[in-house]
Amino acid sequence: MTDAVAQEFQTRLSYVADATERMLDQLLSERALPGETFRPAAFLGAMRYASLGGGKRLRPFLLIETARLFGIENEGVLRAGAALEMIHCYSLVHDDLPALDNDDLRRGRPTTHKAYDEATAILVGDALLTYAFDVTADPATDADPAIRAELVLALARAAGIGNMVGGQVMDLEAETSTEPHSAEDVIRLQSMKTGALLHYAVEAGAIFARADARAKAALSHYGKALGAAFQVADDILDVEADEEALGKRAGKDAGRNKATLVAALGLKAARKRRDALAQEAIAALSSFPDEKAAILKEAARFAVARKN
To answer: Looking at domain 3-305, what is its CATH homologous superfamily?
Structure first.
């Protein structure tokens, strides 16, 4: 891939991160919406702490760039991307709690329950999750109620018991298992806990674009492969990266008997699978014109080459 495409990818990633930040800032304002009574200012500050000022915003990026693949660029797509980021941020807030991963550091600063308290962190996660569906279902996101309903259903399926939450449950169960974690079990767990929201991002972009069945199938393949590659890369970073680069505690997976592909396959095989999945994601976009799909292809390379 040319340096020009890599540079354009970084420019687009930065642009979407900034646009998502602005949209989250707007959505998380003190102004109550029709039907709301009042927004407690101190609690809203905790929601903003958990959501603003950090992260790659890769999930909104994938949603926005997938819609852009079909020439769709509007505020509704950005709203859906911000809603997806709220789901991601809620999951991080809850994952960091003492009852789950018990982490003190996230994105280089204290986790929400450390900056505030555990009760506030639980409620922040609850509020972000609920608000994400509010934003997605709002007519401002898309005038067509059928499109909004499709988005809401897909997001609920990605974030719920059969995917992200269920994957977190399986992750906790794995920590107390006395049996070695099989690669098959780890792959399923990771496709649920991490891969599902990344896949939804791509799926949602296709929904906005009213893409046909063939295009949706190709993008679904891309999203699943990219999501899997992203999580294997995370497993490897936990072993290889330092805490300053990660912005969170490093080396925690092995110490807690986490179900990772590094543990199941070994580091060399995990690297090989990571790279193969990135190539699979890129190949899944072969039916799209190169000049249109170049940024999404570069996103797959970025997912496995990143340092945090």
So the answer is: Farnesyl Diphosphate Synthase (1.10.600.10)
